[in-house]
Amino acid sequence: MSYTIEDPADVEFDVRTDELLINMGPQHPSTHGVLRLVLRTDGEVVIDAVPHIGYLHRCAEKIGENLSTIEYIPYTDRMDYLSGMNMNLGFAVAAEKLMGTEIPPKAQYLRIIIAEMNRIASHLVGMGTYGLDLGTFSPFLYAFREREKILDLFEEVCGARLTYSYITVGGAHDDLPDGWLDKCLAFLDYFEPRIEEYHTLLTRNHIFIKRTANIGVISPEMAKSYGCSGPVLRGSGVNDDLRVSRPYLPYDEFKWEVEVAPFDDAPEETVVGDCWNRYYVRMREVVQSVSLVRQAAKAYVTAEGSHRADLPRALKVPVGEVYVETECPRGAMGFHVVGQDDPKPLRCRAKSSSFCNLSVTGALAPGVLIADLSAIVGSLDIVMGEIDR
Amino acid sequence: MNADEIANCLSEEFGDAITGKNVEAMDPWVEIAPEAIADVAQFCRDDEQLLFDYLRNQSAVDYLITDARKAKKLEIEPRLEIVYHLHSYPHGHDLVLKVLLPRWKGDVEGELPECPTVSHVWAIADWHEREIFDLMGVRFTGHPNLRRILCPEDWVGHPLRKDYEFPLEYHGIRCQ
């Protein structure tokens, strides 16, 4: 098949004698999946970085137009596969808002427990792989040891360890099994003291601070303009957490705090918006999530209603449109659903948080060292499945 | 400001370029004439009363109901809609802008409709517009780098169009 290149930006032909073109990825270990970065470098210094995405594109939005809302749930947890529960939740909340479905209190607390547990698991992977990016292997093993236990808990709840499809339109497809809450709380008691280990191992490690402090600084204005969200936005000092600013579950009943830079206990080399702060927001969020799960577990025991609302058999999406964002571990995952008085929606747009967070890379790259670029991309904590959808 | 006040504020500033609004909707929206969207976007971001500094989402919807009976019942005109979800951090208010485009420029099938870019207003619009161009087939005029982002460079057609036909093969790989 013949193919002519109309646009010179398609392949970066135009390289000066003293410059080097480096293709980083799509199979590079520090690109977190199939991300390809084309770097134009002068020695060790990056002049330009162009991200190329789409290697995992499955046209999930088109699939959404051909399925009913409940049938679409299993496709959502294949977006951000490290936090499938949060993806299920995001789409379920959007569909429920458009259809006007009320969720029983018990199901709401159940959703908080599950969503926050998945946030812990996801941030653990974020921490472990960030250590890998920067050349340390042991935090990764610690992180996966703990995550394994969360996956065991999830397996008990829904039978799956990665793609759960557990939270669904109207609530969750099953109630928590007997005795599950006790196991979950026992895990939290086991897990909480270990967070300090991670801080000793990584957060306050001298080399780690050297590699991340004052690297890849995103100003608050830049973070907003590039549509950043989640820990990336809060690491830049913008106080926005959708769990507080656009509550979709009763988070306001519990006592917890939004973690936002600057932090009192930050090393003095760090500046607001750098890689270290983004990383540290995640680690602090883990502590908040632990506390949220404990409080939600208490509320769940006495809550009324069942784990799922009674829904009509033929669940039609009415004419109208809605855009709902939920706070996923990686940021604000949005679903723009347009109904056409049919079980299948007319449009099922998924706005990915990692997509927006990654777009800032091109602006951060000029002038940094190649090794720092993997520190920057790692600190954004992207998942390609969500970017490419 | 509430949605009604914002809509009035925009009407005062731009007059006929504001072609419609619905402030009662779940997400209140204002409809903008395509040629004015870049100016309206700039105004929305910079005006002291509005300060919409955050583009939450930008997407496109293809309003083409292929089932004729259903299309008649719903009375939906075939069109493309570009949707901008804005948020203001200083004021804490939201707005949705909509731009209605013909499905094909001049009703000639294959000619992509055009819409001015807003990528100079919000940096993230750069990638969102590339995605809309790629999947929905809208040419954003003035965009610095309008090329496909998710599909391969040599992909034919725009998959999210309702009348898109899947290719039989791609580089010798059977697709159907």
TrEMBL record, chain A:
<keyword id="KW-0560">Oxidoreductase</keyword>
<comment type="subunit">
    <text>NDH-1 is composed of 14 different subunits. Subunits NuoB, C, D, E, F, and G constitute the peripheral sector of the complex.</text>
</comment>
<keyword id="KW-1003">Cell membrane</keyword>
<dbReference type="InterPro" id="IPR001135">
    <property type="entry name" value="NADH_Q_OxRdtase_suD"/>
</dbReference>
<keyword id="KW-0830">Ubiquinone</keyword>
<protein>
    <recommendedName>
        <fullName>NADH-quinone oxidoreductase subunit D</fullName>
        <ecNumber>7.1.1.-</ecNumber>
    </recommendedName>
</protein>
<dbReference type="GO" id="GO:0048038">
    <property type="term" value="F:quinone binding"/>
</dbReference>
<dbReference type="InterPro" id="IPR029014">
    <property type="entry name" value="NiFe-Hase_large"/>
</dbReference>
<dbReference type="Pfam" id="PF00346">
    <property type="entry name" value="Complex1_49kDa"/>
</dbReference>
<dbReference type="InterPro" id="IPR022885">
    <property type="entry name" value="NDH1_su_D/H"/>
</dbReference>
<dbReference type="GO" id="GO:0005886">
    <property type="term" value="C:plasma membrane"/>
</dbReference>
<comment type="similarity">
    <text>Belongs to the complex I 49 kDa subunit family.</text>
</comment>
<feature type="domain" description="NADH-quinone oxidoreductase subunit D">
    <location>
        <begin position="133"/>
        <end position="389"/>
    </location>
</feature>
<keyword id="KW-0520">NAD</keyword>
<keyword id="KW-0874">Quinone</keyword>
<keyword id="KW-1278">Translocase</keyword>
<keyword id="KW-0813">Transport</keyword>
<comment type="function">
    <text>NDH-1 shuttles electrons from NADH, via FMN and iron-sulfur (Fe-S) centers, to quinones in the respiratory chain. The immediate electron acceptor for the enzyme in this species is believed to be ubiquinone. Couples the redox reaction to proton translocation (for every two electrons transferred, four hydrogen ions are translocated across the cytoplasmic membrane), and thus conserves the redox energy in a proton gradient.</text>
</comment>
<dbReference type="GO" id="GO:0051287">
    <property type="term" value="F:NAD binding"/>
</dbReference>
<dbReference type="GO" id="GO:0050136">
    <property type="term" value="F:NADH dehydrogenase (quinone) (non-electrogenic) activity"/>
</dbReference>
<keyword id="KW-0472">Membrane</keyword>
Automatic annotation (TrEMBL), chain B:
<keyword id="KW-0874">Quinone</keyword>
<keyword id="KW-0830">Ubiquinone</keyword>
<dbReference type="GO" id="GO:0005886">
    <property type="term" value="C:plasma membrane"/>
</dbReference>
<feature type="domain" description="NADH:ubiquinone oxidoreductase 30kDa subunit">
    <location>
        <begin position="30"/>
        <end position="166"/>
    </location>
</feature>
<protein>
    <recommendedName>
        <fullName>NADH-quinone oxidoreductase subunit C</fullName>
        <ecNumber>7.1.1.-</ecNumber>
    </recommendedName>
</protein>
<keyword id="KW-1278">Translocase</keyword>
<keyword id="KW-1003">Cell membrane</keyword>
<dbReference type="InterPro" id="IPR037232">
    <property type="entry name" value="NADH_quin_OxRdtase_su_C/D-like"/>
</dbReference>
<dbReference type="Pfam" id="PF00329">
    <property type="entry name" value="Complex1_30kDa"/>
</dbReference>
<dbReference type="InterPro" id="IPR010218">
    <property type="entry name" value="NADH_DH_suC"/>
</dbReference>
<keyword id="KW-0472">Membrane</keyword>
<dbReference type="GO" id="GO:0008137">
    <property type="term" value="F:NADH dehydrogenase (ubiquinone) activity"/>
</dbReference>
<dbReference type="InterPro" id="IPR020396">
    <property type="entry name" value="NADH_UbQ_OxRdtase_CS"/>
</dbReference>
<keyword id="KW-0813">Transport</keyword>
<dbReference type="GO" id="GO:0050136">
    <property type="term" value="F:NADH dehydrogenase (quinone) (non-electrogenic) activity"/>
</dbReference>
<keyword id="KW-0520">NAD</keyword>
<dbReference type="InterPro" id="IPR001268">
    <property type="entry name" value="NADH_UbQ_OxRdtase_30kDa_su"/>
</dbReference>
<comment type="similarity">
    <text>Belongs to the complex I 30 kDa subunit family.</text>
</comment>
<comment type="subunit">
    <text>NDH-1 is composed of 14 different subunits. Subunits NuoB, C, D, E, F, and G constitute the peripheral sector of the complex.</text>
</comment>
<comment type="function">
    <text>NDH-1 shuttles electrons from NADH, via FMN and iron-sulfur (Fe-S) centers, to quinones in the respiratory chain. The immediate electron acceptor for the enzyme in this species is believed to be ubiquinone. Couples the redox reaction to proton translocation (for every two electrons transferred, four hydrogen ions are translocated across the cytoplasmic membrane), and thus conserves the redox energy in a proton gradient.</text>
</comment>
<dbReference type="GO" id="GO:0048038">
    <property type="term" value="F:quinone binding"/>
</dbReference>
<keyword id="KW-0560">Oxidoreductase</keyword>
